[in-house]
Amino acid sequence: MTASPPNTLGGRLSGAVALVIIVVLAAIVFLAVWLAFPNDGHFVGLLAIGVLALVLALLTYFLQAAASDPNPVRAAGWGLFGMGGAILLLTILLDAPASVSTGSKLAGVFVVLVALAIGFLGAAWRGRTRATETNRQQSQASWRQKPVTSAFSYSSANPPAVAPPPPPPGTPPPGASGGA
């Protein structure tokens, strides 16, 4: 009986299913927030949608671990990240009510830019970590393909060859017969 390899995808979502879950959840949440702020409350509604998009982008980062193929989930995360940043920046700069001062607008833009910079720095750090992990896995795979060596095949494992002691003087060398 041969042992089958363990199922590494057991209990994981497919990438497409995870993407559909993210898109449907985001659409429902965004629609609910938009409808919760009717008439003149759209400024606050747009700010809430932008913040929620950034939060959902962060949640997709963690959802990648549950997906068998993290690429669709990662793409959805970047889309939500970009959408959240764009909505926040454009809402603060172009749709702020007249009661919001210019200083408050600049402070809001600064906070959004800092949040986006932290997101991009985190992505750069994670990308570098992922590249290091890929290199480590490639090195491990090439090491596993090398033939297994015995611990006794190393020169330090074997004592140096010892020559037999020389025979005492006057004895015939081995293999020499005494008679002619």
Which features would summarize this protein structure in a list?
mainly alpha, 180 residues, 4 helices, 63% helix, disordered N terminus, single chain
Can you put this structure into words, describing what you see?
The chain is an all-alpha fold and 180 residues long. 63% of the residues lie in helices and 0% in strands. The protein has helices at residues 15-36, 42-63, 70-94, 102-145. Helix 2 (42-63) runs antiparallel to helix 3 (70-94). The longest helix is centred in the last third of the chain and has 44 residues, at 102-145. The chain is rod-shaped and about 120 Å long.
- The pLDDT mean sits at 80
Quaternary state, please? single chain
- What is the rounded Rg? 35 Å
The beta-strand count equals 0
For the termini, the CA-CA separation is 69 Å
SSE topology:
Layout: H1 15-36, H2 42-63, H3 70-94, H4 102-145
Helix pairs in contact: 1-2, 1-3, 2-3, 3-4
Concise summary:
By secondary structure, this protein is mainly alpha-helical.
